[in-house]
Amino acid sequence: ERTRDIVAENGVQLIDSTLSPGRYPAITVQVGVPVRWTIYAPEGSVNGCNNRILIPEYDIEYQFKTGKNVIEFTPEKTGKFSYSCWMGMIRSWITVVE
């Protein structure tokens, strides 16, 4: 799993993660700054359970494909927000800090 610290470029937070077949990465981002979250899905990592991600806090539903996937949102408030696969079996968190 590749997750790095918050890197800002041109006013955007760049987050890199790698998709695993059985789990999603937890990330930490800064409030009020747009996020560009790149999730790399290696060959064979996308399956029937993890292929669609739901992030209710940001009204996002995203279908993964093998290769590079980009999810963009702007966190408006601090806190810890859960997200999951479409079946609700695989879960993780987005932590938003000041």
Task: Based on the model shown, name its key terms.
mainly beta, 5-stranded mixed sheet, 4-stranded mixed sheet, 9 strands
Structure, described:
The chain contains no helices and 9 strands. It has strands at 7-9, 12-18, 27-30, 35-41, 52-55, 60-63, 67-73, 79-85, 91-97. The strands form 2 sheets. A 5-stranded mixed beta sheet has the order 3-9-8-5-6, with no helix packed on it. Strands 1-2-4-7 form a 4-stranded mixed beta sheet, with no helix packed on it. 17% of the residues are buried. The model has no long low-confidence stretch (mean pLDDT 93).
Helix content: under 10%
**Biggest beta sheet summary:** 5 strands, mixed
Strand content: over 45%
Secondary-structure element string: EEEEEEEEE
The separation of the N and C termini measures 25 Å
**Tally of individual helices:** 0
- Class from secondary-structure proportions: mainly beta
Tell me how many strands there are. Answer: 9
Strand order of the largest sheet: 3-9-8-5-6
Residue stretches low in confidence (pLDDT < 50, at least 5 long) are: none
Our Rg estimate from Cα atoms comes to 13 Å
What would the average pLDDT be, to the nearest integer? 93
Shape: globular
